[in-house]
From TrEMBL:
Oxalate binds at residues 73, 78, 83. GO terms for cellular component: apoplast. Residues 28-182 form the Cupin type-1 domain. The keyword Manganese applies. It holds the Pfam family Cupin_1. This is Germin-like protein. Coiled coil: none annotated. SUPFAM superfamilies: RmlC-like cupins. May play a role in plant defense. Probably has no oxalate oxidase activity even if the active site is conserved.
Length: 188
């Protein structure tokens, strides 16, 4: 039931300012490493408007990413936010691919190895990734300029859609044998 005085902004209800408290602007736990015992060897912990209601309309999110040695944050994009990443511990190979409609040559890979204290920017909507290239765990923090930036993990979206994209279409698009595409789809 909607209250006649409720205000709905950016997909979230705004609280009556008289009912807002400090907890609406607070989250804890970023000091604890995330579990990287998974196939990618990484863990992403996001603080966005879903965890801190006070972020609604402020255009900010914060992310902690933990990486095991050789851990990967796989190719993904954020349709509603640019991102700036700062390495707190370790060394990361990071990169993004420019859009494919640029006059000066699209699909360009911009990549760099970052060390502790280094910063890198991922423009809005572009496919990007991070890989721990060190022999020890790594930690990075990112800020996104959206309280709800969204995420599209490329392999999951392409090979794990529900219902599945027709394997003939993917075989042609990726120039792969249809059986390879079907095998990839089964993995997702």
């Amino acid at each position: 039931m909607f209250l006649p005085s409720a205000v709905f902004v950016n997909g979230k209800f705004c609280k009556n300012p008289k009912l807002v408290g400090a907890d609406d602007f607070f989250a804890s736990g970023f000091n604890s490493p995330g579990n990287t015992n998974n196939p990618f060897g990484s863990n992403v912990e996001t603080v966005d408007v879903n965890k801190i209601p006070g972020l609604n309309t402020l255009g900010l999110s914060l992310v902690r990413i933990d990486y095991a040695p050789n851990g990967l944050n796989p190719p993904h994009s954020h349709p509603r936010g640019s991102e700036i990443l700062a390495v707190a511990v370790g060394s990361l190979l990071v990169g993004f691919v420019s859009s494919n409609n640029q006059v000066d040559g699209g699909n360009r890979l911009f990549t760099k190895v970052l060390n502790q204290g280094d910063v890198f920017v991922f423009p809005i909507g572009l496919i990007h990734f991070e890989l721990n290239v060190g022999r020890t765990p790594a930690v990075a923090f990112t800020v996104l300029n959206s309280q709800n930036p969204g995420i599209t993990t490329i392999a999951n979206a392409v090979f794990g859609s529900d219902p599945p994209i027709n394997s003939d279409i993917l075989a042609r698009a990726f120039k792969l044998d249809k059986k390879i595409v079907e095998n990839l789809q089964r993995k997702f």
